[in-house]
Write a structure and sequence with these properties.
Keywords: Signal. This is Soluble ligand binding domain-containing protein. It comes from Entotheonella factor. GO terms for molecular function: polysaccharide transmembrane transporter activity. 20% of the residues lie in helices and 29% in strands. It contains six helices and 15 strands. The strands form three sheets. Strands 2, 3, 6, 7, 8, 9 and 10 form a seven-stranded mixed beta sheet that branches. It has a six-stranded mixed beta sheet with strand order 1-14-13-15-11-12, with helices on one face. Strands 4-5 form a two-stranded antiparallel ribbon. The radius of gyration is 30 Å and the shape is rod-shaped. The relative contact order is 0.14.
Length: 287
């Protein structure tokens, strides 16, 4: 009887020892620091942008100071032109806003107004653009509408994908090379908590990085891949996977992690924090 009991204990120990491949380290270390913001911003790849010139369907507000009868909003026709009082047909296609201002000032000053002061404001443009990139429905170059916000442009690009990170980068034109940008909490943005709206300008970039994931395997209800949110713990990941099965060994959970290019396994506590590509292993109870 004693021999059978000893043999049973030996079998249990052998099974426990065979549950893992490689060494199991006692303590799961804190997650590795994320990639630096500088490197992340510099790695954003933007497509080639169209030239920032006027074209068909652009909408403009033209103000001639002290001449309210001449000030008006105009839309460029399919040929890029529009009609303006005193001058007649103005062919604006291919001009910049500044060039159009000078052209109108010159034409009005010929025979009608002494030293006219003219201002042209872009209300909506097919040729002014922003970049919406990364984990969105349809990344690409989008025409810039007057006073457009980050939220409006994300919606126009098909929304944020399920595999997106928890944040987006807003990078003003010309500042990517300097690694300057604003990190935006997408949950707060999409819920309307961020006020006032973040307005974008010509040439700006909105980039949604792809999110991080963890894998939950073994004795859980729904093994699989799950998004890694901020401060996700072992316990939280198991809840996402539907919780334990009745056969789970809750006290012998392990986490498999790549450290310095080498795969290691750690004994995990429910409060341990996870990092990208961690694999949670919930073994079957041996009794």
């Amino acid at each position: 009887m004693i021999k059978k009991l000893c043999l049973g204990l030996v079998c249990v120990m052998l099974i426990a020892g065979c549950e893992t491949t490689g060494d199991v380290v006692d303590v799961l270390p804190p997650p590795s620091p994320p990639a630096s913001s500088d490197n992340e911003l510099k790695s954003i790849q933007r497509p080639e942008a169209p030239p920032a010139t006027l074209g068909p369907e652009d909408k403009l507000r033209i103000t001639v100071y002290e001449h309210d009868d001449l000030s008006q909003e105009v839309s460029l026709a399919s040929d890029g032109g529009f009609a303006f009082p005193l001058i007649g047909k103005v062919q604006a296609s291919g001009m910049t806003v500044e060039q159009l201002e000078q052209h109108l000032k010159q034409e009005l000053g010929k025979d009608y107004i002494v030293d006219p002061q003219v201002s042209v404001t872009m209300l909506e443009s097919r040729n002014r653009h922003v970049f919406v990139l990364g984990a969105v429905g349809t990344p690409g170059v989008y025409p810039l509408k007057h006073n457009a916000s980050v939220l409006e442009l994300l919606t126009q690009a098909g929304g944020v994908r399920e595999d997106a990170s928890w944040y987006a980068w807003y990078v003003p034109a010309g500042e990517q090379a300097e690694a300057r940008g604003t990190k935006i909490d997408l949950e707060r943005l999409l819920s309307g908590e961020i006020r006032p709206p973040i307005r974008v300008q010509n040439g700006d970039t909105i980039h949604v990085p792809q999110g991080a994931f963890v894998y939950v395997t073994g004795e859980v209800q729904k093994p699989g891949r799950y998004p890694l949110k901020r401060n996700t713990t072992v316990d939280r990941a198991i809840i996402l996977a539907g919780g334990f099965t009745k056969f789970a060994s809750k006290k012998r959970i392990r986490v498999r992690r790549i450290v310095n290019g080498e795969q290691k396994e750690y004994r995990a506590r429910s409060s341990d924090e996870l990092q990208n590509e961690d694999v949670i292993i919930v073994p079957e109870s041996i009794l």
